[in-house]
Each structure stands twice: as structure tokens, then as C-alpha cells.
Amino acid sequence: MSEIASKVTRLLEAIETADDAASLEQYRLGALGRKGLVTLALKSLGGIPAEERREIGQTINQHKAALQAALEQKHAVLHAQERDAQMAHEALDVSLPAQSTPMGMLHPISQIIDEVSAIFATMGFAIAEGPDIESDALNFTALNFPHDHPAREMHDTFYMANSPEDQLMVLRTHTSPVQVRALRAEGAPIRVIAPGRTYRSDHDMTHSPMFHQIEGLVIDEETHFAHLKGCLSDFCRAFFELNDVPLRFRPSFFPFTEPSAEVDIGCSHDRGCLIIGARADWMEILGCGMVHPNVIKSGGLDPERYQGFAFGLGIERLAMLKYGMPDLRLFFDGDPHWTRHYGFAPLEFPTLSRGLRP
Ligand code: DAH
């Protein structure tokens, strides 16, 4: 039995110095496993004379208990060490400045959409949407563009393959078809803006084949042209962050509005610098008008009962005017230097109360 005692002593020492879970498991098997020291010793009890068996049995059980206790204790120690090492490895210093991680920037197009949405939201406008691939019927016909009318050609349309229902499809040339979609979906009274991508086959310093517009639509029983003027002048003052913005409503033509107007904003040019809000010069910023009765009919409403106004803004143009960007083509080059220079801090949604710009 002294032989087993010295083996146990050696095992206890080994357990004490084990430095990882795998070697501890080897020692556990050596002590308590199927062919382990204790198991074999207990098995050998059968061949021992009955008088000695009790005492030897007790001794073996004491060894067993001592080994179990040592294994459990060491297991707890190793487990705690492992957890400490993992925590140290995964530690995150929350007091480090956040700028240490590379930060993305909001594209000016997204910023302008957020700013314009914030302004119209305070006036009670909801957001409406429509698809980029639109039917010719909604892009033109429902908006009172007669067939073969020259206004269709002015839109430099990209034509697509016909739809499965054999409808003629286009990449929408403006956001105006959302007017008809929103009227059909919601009826009246309605007050919505619809920001989105639009497409025309045109490419130079001031035109991109893909660009962005924001459509506006207000329909109820009483809205008239003075509401249109008030709404757009409130918008311009909020957007350009000026108390007084001179606006000029110039008669124009759009098939889907009657009367129609283009709105110019007062400005001046001083040594290559554009100053918004001055009165020396005029610059066109949007199209608008009272919604044509035929469009109200396309939307499923009675034009004898309902009336209202619509407007369309070019987002790139607003961005260029407000943030002084000279070349439209750079908007879509995906150059990170440009985005870092002209982009906006993310996660700072513009509000009128806090200021539009982050
Ligand atoms: N859809 C016009 C365009 O792309 C812009 C426009 C003008 C929209 C007048 C309107 C509007 O809603 O009333 O040129």
C-alpha cells in the first residue's frame, strides 16, 4: 500500500503543477479513469483477505477523495485563469476617442434628402415612394402627356424591355409618377413628398444620366396657388437658413400642372462666389403648379371636388447651391476624398429645432 501512497503523492504534485486543462484531464484519467490508479486499486480489493480489506478499502477511498478534491480545486483555478486571459484579450477601452475607428460619411445627396424631409415633415408631409422602373403609362400618359407630344421627347427617356403584362416600361424620367401612385393608394386629402432616383439620357457638367428629385403633392378640397407660394417660400427660408429669400414665380409649362410656374431664387455673383438671398440676379430652383384635373382623374379622384398643388426639386441642384459644389459629375465618381470633403457626419439626423447641419 505504501506503493500506492507514493503514486498518489506524485499524482497530487502533478495535479498541483498542471498548467492547462488538457494535462489536468490526463491526470484525472490516471487517477480516476477506467484504468486509473484508484479504480485498479479498488478492483484489486477482491483478492485481499477479508480482515485487511476494510482498512485498505478505507485508505483507498481517502486517496480517492484527496485526488478528487485536488482535481476540482485545480480545475477551478485553471478555469479562472482562462477567463481572465480571455477578458484581457477582449478588453475594450471605452474611454478611447471614437475617431480612432475609420468613419464613413453621408453623401450630400442623402444629407439633402434628410434636410428636405425634416422641413416638410414639420409641415405635415409624409414620404411616398415609387419604383425606378416605371410604366410609360404612369411616367407620361397618366400625367397628361399626350401621345407624340414634344414634352415626351424633352425627357430623353431610357426605354426598358416591356413588362410581363406587355406594358411599355421606362426608367422614370422624374418623380412625378409617384403623384398618381400616391393618389391611387391614399386618396385625398393627401400631403406627401417623394424623394428618389430619376434617369435621363444626358451627360455633361450639369447633367448626369442618373440624378435625384423630390416631388411634392398636396391635394384636398380648398388648396390654392397662395398655399403653394407660402409652402415653397417657407421651405426655401428653412432650407437656405435665411430669414428672407426673394422668390420669383415665372409662368412656365408642364403637362401635369395648370397653371405652371418655375421658381427662381434671388442671388448674386461676386467674383465667382454665388450668394443666395441677394437681389441682383435670379436662379431657377424648381418647377411647380396647380395639379391638372386630368392628373387628379388619373389618381382616381373627382377633379370637380379636389384640387391642389405639386412641385419638383432637383436634389443635386439644391446641394450644389447650398454647399458650393461646382461639378455635378463628381457626385457619382465614388471618390473617397470628395466624400470626405463634401460629406456629412452620419447618425446626426437634421432637425429644424437643432439646426439642419450637424
Ligand atoms: N417633373 C418635372 C421635371 O422633371 C418637375 C416638376 C415640375 C414637378 C412641376 C412637379 C411640378 O410636380 O408641378 O422636370
Describe what you observe in this structure.
Helices cover 42% and strands 21% of the residues. With 358 residues, it is α+β, with helices and mostly antiparallel strands. The protein folds into two domains: 2-89; 108-342, BirA Bifunctional Protein, domain 2 (2-Layer Sandwich), CATH 3.30.930. Strands 1, 5, 6, 7, 8, 9, 10 and 11 form an eight-stranded mixed beta sheet that branches. The protein has a three-stranded antiparallel beta sheet with strand order 2-4-3. Helix 1 (2-17) packs antiparallel against helix 2 and helix 2 (21-32) packs antiparallel against helix 4 (50-90). 3,4-dihydroxyphenylalanine binds at residues 174, 176, 215, 254, 257, 287-289, 310-312. 3,4-dihydroxyphenylalanine binds next to strand 10 and strand 11.
Q: Write down the domain tally.
A: 2
Indicate the overall shape. Answer: elongated
Q: How many E-type strands?
A: 11
Low-confidence stretches are none
N-to-C terminal Cα separation, in Å? 82 Å
- Rg over CA atoms: 39 Å
The CATH topology annotation of the largest domain reads as BirA Bifunctional Protein, domain 2
Strand content: 15-25%
CATH class of the largest domain reads Alpha Beta
Secondary-structure-based class equals alpha+beta
**Mean pLDDT over all positions:** 91
Count of discrete alpha- or pi-helical segments spanning 4 or more residues:
12
Helix content: 40-55%
Ligands, ions, cofactors: 3,4-dihydroxyphenylalanine
Name given to the CATH homologous superfamily of the largest domain: Bira Bifunctional Protein, Domain 2
Write the layout of secondary structure elements.
Elements: H1 2-17, H2 21-32, H3 37-44, H4 50-90, H5 108-122, E1 126-127, E2 133-135, H6 136-139, H7 150-154, E3 159-160, E4 169-171, H8 177-186, E5 190-199, E6 210-220, H9 225-240, E7 247-254, E8 257-270, E9 273-276, E10 281-291, H10 293-298, E11 307-314, H11 315-323, H12 336-342
Parallel strand pairs: 1-5
Antiparallel strand pairs: 2-4, 3-4, 5-6, 6-11, 7-8, 8-9, 8-10, 10-11
Helix pairs in contact: 1-2, 1-4, 2-4, 5-11
3,4-dihydroxyphenylalanine is lined by residues 174, 176, 215, 254, 257, 287-289, 310-312.
